[in-house]
Each structure stands twice: as structure tokens, then as C-alpha cells.
């Protein structure tokens, strides 16, 4: 069924205004005839009105009957539902890929309709175009490849990028998601096949932040792969060479960043799924030079912090008790260290002390066990969280997860290890012995098979009263007696769209810790006490547009407060400074693109 009504009834008052007053403005198109039908940005399929068919030379190229947008929408949803019915009982991977294919075909053909069904059905479709199915798509990308999407810059393009960037057909690009494919979700090095991640993230940008799909650009930097299986795969579509390293690698990323900045100085670049060493290195290298951020380090940190603060509220304690929470983080990679860094900054602010003074509550575990100051070759990024063995009774360097849990009895166990099932029965039962009245388990690794535990196991072994969150979606758990174990999705999708949109509208030249902190605080305060008591830490993904508007406004206001906002288009710093909080949310909302067919006007 067509769902305008749901928009009108939703809490998103900005859309209501939009929906009631929107008369779509004309869209200039430099093509005619069949070229328009083959361009998904402009194509309306059978939806072209007769007058437009005349104006654009389309008469005779389509069946005569005009089908309304609403009818097209319903027809697609019917096809989708019958595909669901017809594939029932088949293996999950077959069903997931079939669903991805039907959506991808629409994406390739008619973007307006595609984004409309995505926005309306985000809860059902995010698991297909994003985690977990996007992981499967990346793993099989070379075989699934039919049409290119986004841009590919390879090591062979060195010296050419400044001109190549002009091959992109859109005049303006606002949002770029960039990967080198070296750590795709928890699936490791997938080389060029990792392009599925920027595509999926940017689909979320369009759906959640209303970034115009004509202004997004997914990018793959192909510097080779160290994945032997791919190197030996005759269908592999990327460079068949080992990954570039050191200065050679950095010179490729430098050249790309310079090229982007030259053509679109205001575009935001989101770094995604880079292996840890390059994730940290590139963040340090570019964060003061370009408007960029690393989603795995910074976006994830904000979402996790919001969840950690929500956990304190779920325990019925004041927020200041965050300082008393004992938190065990499993995984000392870009995501785990990003989370700890932001959590420690928050704790330090609350305690009014400097960074390292507040680290007693955190325990960090990696593949070699508990990280202490005795660790050989201790990574500098992990150093602030390394324990002094003298201060942790009986726990030695490299102590196992179970040893740490039995000793510490933490309030929170948070996994960002990429290792599926590492929170096994013994680990979860140990969490039952937590000193907290409401222990929290965050199994944040993606995709689903890499989650540290399933939702069902978490409630079964750690107890009904836990708070649970996972990076990929799980169904809520039936606990019997009419009780439900609520499953939260602790995924950076709650923040990155708002960070990108807020930064874009602010016109800031770079993205500061203050802007990221504002994003996290906004998400943390979004949930009501009533929901928190039920174990709900994050809002439903159904309201992702509304959340993103709020987060975007918080980021924008933080940029204004730091005197960094230069504005965008006709709304300059003076106008931004005078906007109230509500006006800023309204401004952000009114800048969100919404998929409706615009009248097309041909211009030579
Ligand atoms: N839910 C979300 O929003 C996000 C989830 N992630 C997920 O987090 C995972 C890790 O991502 P990154 O930190 O970027 O990866 P990474 O490769 O940088 O780090 C992985 C870390 O896990 C540790 N590890 C590996 N095996 C272990 C074991 N058996 N026991 C304890 N620790 C172990 C490694 O030593 C390393 O420190 C991935 O699965 C990714 O999908 C990442 C970003 C956001
Ligand atoms: C969600 C995400 O960014 C990741 O798993 O890498
Ligand atoms: Mg990621």
C-alpha cells in the first residue's frame, strides 16, 4: 500500500510541512528520447505524463498508458512480497541475494522510485542494502557485477586522478564515501569488491539524510589486495597485485583527496572500512585539511557512547554514574579504540579530570587477551587503555576474556572484534554474575555471522534483565510469560548521516570533536525514560529521517558555536547564528531531498 499517510502521521513535522506544500520544481535535463529512459536519475518508466512524452521525444517509446507513481510503487512492493513468498524455505543467502537483486534492478532503472520504496520501508530494506546482506554482496561482487556504480581509482591511475575526477557526470557532489576495501565489515580484505559498502552507506545517506542521489559518489581506491583467494579468482575485477604499503599507499590517497577537493571543495568525505593502521593514519593526516571523518572510528564511537549512557539510565541510575560503570571492550581495532577514546573523553568531562585519569573503569581485550602496559609492541592508540598489572588484582597481561569477566564482573561487555560467537555460553553466563542490576551486552560486529553472540543466546544465558544491542539486526526475543527481550541495533547508521548532513550545511572546513560529541549527545538524549526502562536504547530505524534531522542540527549548531560554520548557498554564517534550535532542525529538514517525480525540462 502507498504510504503517504505514514509520513503525515509520523513525528517528523518537517516532512508534514514538506508534504503539504511541496510542488516539485522543474528539473533541467540535457537529454532527450531513449537516453532519458536509460538514465535512472531521470527515468520515470511508464510514469511520464503525455505532455512530457511530447516535450522529450518519448512518444512511442513507451506503452501508451500512463501509470501513476503510486501505482508503480504498489506494483514494485507486490513483486517484492511475492518474491518473499516464492523464496520461503530456501537458504538465507539465496533469499537475501534475490531480494538485493530486485532492489538493485530498480536502483539501476529508476532512482526516484527506488529511494521512495527505500525510505518508506527502511526497516525492512536496510538489512538488504546495508548490513548484513551488503556483506554477502561484497563477497560475491565480481560475480554479481552487471553495471558500474560510483568511481574506481586504482594504483594504475597515479598521476591521472585530477583529470579522472572530471569524468564523473554530476556537476556537484556533496557526499563521498571512500574505501580501500581492506577491512570490509568483519569479513576482512575484499579488495575492489568492497565498493558495495560505499554504495550501501550512501543509500542510507539518501534515505536518512535526504542527500540528493545525484550528488553522492561511492568511491573505491583499489591499491591491490592481500586476499589470496581473490588474487587467484579469474573473475576478480580488481588489480591483481598485493596492496601498496607505506608512502606509495599514502601518495594514492593524497592524490585522490586533492582531486576531490579541487573539483568539489565543499564535499564531505567519509572514510569507511579501512584497516586499522590506515584508518588512524589517514584520519590524523586529513582531518585538519579536509572536511572528512572516519565512520568506523568516530561514527561508531558516538553510537556506542549513546548506548553506554542509555545503559546507565536503564539501570535507573543518574548519568553521573557512568563514571562507576566497569566496561570491558573486546576488540582493539579502529572501532574498539574509537569507542574507548570517546567514552574516556565523556568520562573525563563528567569527572572534570584530564583524559587518562578517568581510565580505571575500562578494560581492553584483543586477540592476545587483556591489554596491559606490559604488552610488547603496545600500539600507541591502545596505550591510554592499557592496564597497569599492579592495579588489577590477579589479572595478568594477556588474561583471557573469561578471566577478566570473572574478576571484574563488569556492567558492560562490548564486542567490536569481528569474531562471530566469541561471547559463548560461558562468557554470557559470566555476565550473569555482573555486579550490575542490568548488565549490558553489545555484540556490535558485522555482519550477522560475525556478531559476538546472537540475541537469543544473550537473553538465554545472561538473563532476562540484560540490555542487548547488536551491530546487525536481530528479531526481538520472546522471553515467555508475555515478556520481550528488546534488541537494539547499535550501528553507526544512527549517526553518520547526521554528521555528514550537519557538516555539509554548516559549510565548516573540517569536522571537530565538538561536532561529533554533539551528534552523540543528541542521539543519547533522543530516547524517553519510558522506552529506556524497557531496554530500548536507540529509536526504531523507522524514524531514521527524524533522528538524522536532529543529529544534523546538533552538528550544525556545534559548528556554529565553534565559529567554524561558513554556511552553504544563500544561508551564510549570519543566518545560521540566529537560528534557534527548532529553526535549525527545520532548516536541516527542509534541505532533505525527497523522491517525487519532477517535471523534466529539456535544455540543450
Ligand atoms: N556496529 C557498528 O556500527 C560497527 C561495527 N564494526 C564492526 O567491528 C568489527 C571490528 O572492526 P575494526 O575495529 O575496524 O576491525 P580491526 O580489524 O581494526 O580490529 C579488530 C580487533 O579485534 C581483535 N580481535 C581479533 N580476534 C579476537 C579475539 N579472538 N578475541 C579478542 N579480540 C580479538 C583484534 O586484535 C583487533 O584488535 C567488524 O566486525 C566491524 O564490522 C565496526 C564499525 C562500526
Ligand atoms: C557498520 C560499519 O561501519 C562496519 O561494520 O564497519
Ligand atoms: Mg564500517
TrEMBL record:
<comment type="similarity">
    <text>Belongs to the malic enzymes family.</text>
</comment>
<dbReference type="InterPro" id="IPR001891">
    <property type="entry name" value="Malic_OxRdtase"/>
</dbReference>
<keyword id="KW-0520">NAD</keyword>
<feature type="active site" description="Proton acceptor">
    <location>
        <position position="201"/>
    </location>
</feature>
<keyword id="KW-0809">Transit peptide</keyword>
<dbReference type="InterPro" id="IPR046346">
    <property type="entry name" value="Aminoacid_DH-like_N_sf"/>
</dbReference>
<dbReference type="Pfam" id="PF00390">
    <property type="entry name" value="malic"/>
</dbReference>
<keyword id="KW-0479">Metal-binding</keyword>
<keyword id="KW-0560">Oxidoreductase</keyword>
<dbReference type="GO" id="GO:0004471">
    <property type="term" value="F:malate dehydrogenase (decarboxylating) (NAD+) activity"/>
</dbReference>
<dbReference type="GO" id="GO:0042803">
    <property type="term" value="F:protein homodimerization activity"/>
</dbReference>
<feature type="binding site">
    <location>
        <position position="273"/>
    </location>
    <ligand>
        <name>a divalent metal cation</name>
    </ligand>
</feature>
<feature type="binding site">
    <location>
        <position position="491"/>
    </location>
    <ligand>
        <name>(S)-malate</name>
    </ligand>
</feature>
<feature type="binding site">
    <location>
        <position position="272"/>
    </location>
    <ligand>
        <name>a divalent metal cation</name>
    </ligand>
</feature>
<dbReference type="InterPro" id="IPR012302">
    <property type="entry name" value="Malic_NAD-bd"/>
</dbReference>
<keyword id="KW-0496">Mitochondrion</keyword>
<dbReference type="GO" id="GO:0046872">
    <property type="term" value="F:metal ion binding"/>
</dbReference>
<feature type="binding site">
    <location>
        <position position="183"/>
    </location>
    <ligand>
        <name>(S)-malate</name>
    </ligand>
</feature>
<protein>
    <recommendedName>
        <fullName>Malic enzyme</fullName>
    </recommendedName>
</protein>
<feature type="domain" description="Malic enzyme NAD-binding">
    <location>
        <begin position="297"/>
        <end position="560"/>
    </location>
</feature>
<comment type="function">
    <text>Involved in the regulation of sugars and amino acids metabolisms during the night period.</text>
</comment>
<dbReference type="InterPro" id="IPR015884">
    <property type="entry name" value="Malic_enzyme_CS"/>
</dbReference>
<dbReference type="GO" id="GO:0006108">
    <property type="term" value="P:malate metabolic process"/>
</dbReference>
<dbReference type="GO" id="GO:0051287">
    <property type="term" value="F:NAD binding"/>
</dbReference>
<dbReference type="Pfam" id="PF03949">
    <property type="entry name" value="Malic_M"/>
</dbReference>
<feature type="binding site">
    <location>
        <position position="296"/>
    </location>
    <ligand>
        <name>a divalent metal cation</name>
    </ligand>
</feature>
<feature type="domain" description="Malic enzyme N-terminal">
    <location>
        <begin position="107"/>
        <end position="287"/>
    </location>
</feature>
<dbReference type="InterPro" id="IPR036291">
    <property type="entry name" value="NAD(P)-bd_dom_sf"/>
</dbReference>
<dbReference type="InterPro" id="IPR012301">
    <property type="entry name" value="Malic_N_dom"/>
</dbReference>
<feature type="binding site">
    <location>
        <position position="446"/>
    </location>
    <ligand>
        <name>(S)-malate</name>
    </ligand>
</feature>
<dbReference type="GO" id="GO:0005739">
    <property type="term" value="C:mitochondrion"/>
</dbReference>
<dbReference type="InterPro" id="IPR037062">
    <property type="entry name" value="Malic_N_dom_sf"/>
</dbReference>
<feature type="active site" description="Proton donor">
    <location>
        <position position="130"/>
    </location>
</feature>
